[in-house]
């Protein structure tokens, strides 16, 4: 059987950093309040004129460079913040990278988006449609947050992460092992933007100003996320034939430090095995897992042969998990993403 093998990795963060103290100057909050409840100390935010496609293309090019390849047969972009409602953003990303005539499409599963896109890329390779696939998670989440909403403004940040998959053998280092995906549309109101879609436009009523911004029922999301990520993780471990003791690294969606710790606790996994970069980048939605992988590799927390469990929960509601054995990647990515030299200099 053909397997999808991770052979490249890259990330991108906008240069502007917003600290908790800066947020506290305009919101009823403090650095201590934010850190205690979320584990976040700062986040990166796009400047005017920078969009999701800019971040995605930078991460994609960095991943392509680390893979040693020059092109791919397919680009799959997971995002909640497309450049436009129509058309999709993935073709724009491919064009920015100089990948002409390459099929490209978006996946919309909010914070679960990268795992969904990863499965789509692996499926394309398994079916013989592609030899190499670029999978990107990218967000400019700051553009959809209500400036006065303390519950969301302190959590989310912007960024992008990408991997390159190539066709290979199931027993190779880097081979994706198994997936578990799920959804429950009855929970759509937990994480949503009510305005701007066909539902609101066909209602005959004008959109309320607040409906153009992202809203989240934090308490309900917490319990649903912990439950679904733990259940999905157990399911994918059973498919893979791993016990929890076999997992070297848990890379959960970087939603909230308490959620990550709760998922690890539900699984019976020592908390030190959970890879986290949320303190420095916040919750970057679909970009959070690939950014955590890139940071983990750069700092040496991910080593070739490590058995890795990925898991996420997002709007929809959606959730998903995947297992893989970490590959021996190029040393191109040896510094934290913040210190990397941009590959794209012009917007």
Report on this structure.
The protein is an alpha/beta fold and 347 residues long. It folds into 2 domains: 3-172, Peroxisomal Thiolase, Chain A, domain 1, CATH 3.40.47.10; 176-325, Peroxisomal Thiolase, Chain A, domain 1, CATH 3.40.47.10. 31% of the residues lie in helices and 22% in strands. The protein is built from 11 helices and 13 strands. It has helices at residues 20-24, 31-38, 52-67, 90-96, 113-126, 150-153, 198-201, 218-240, 257-267, 278-281, 288-298; strands spanning 3-12, 17-19, 42-44, 74-78, 104-107, 132-140, 158-168, 176-183, 191-192, 215-216, 249-252, 307-314, 318-325. The strands form 4 sheets. A 5-stranded mixed sheet has the order 1-7-6-4-5, with helices on both faces. A 4-stranded mixed sheet has the order 8-13-12-11, with helices on both faces. Strand 4 (74-78), helix 4 and strand 5 (104-107) form a beta-alpha-beta unit. Helix 3 (52-67) crosses helix 4 and helix 8 (218-240) runs parallel beside helix 9 (257-267). 52% of the residues are buried. The model has no long low-confidence stretch (mean pLDDT 94). Keywords: Acyltransferase, Cytoplasm, Fatty acid biosynthesis, Fatty acid metabolism, Lipid biosynthesis, Lipid metabolism, Multifunctional enzyme, Transferase. Residues 254-258 are annotated as: ACP-binding. Residues 105-185 form the Beta-ketoacyl-[acyl-carrier-protein] synthase III N-terminal domain. It is found in: Cytoplasm. Belongs to the thiolase-like superfamily. FabH family.
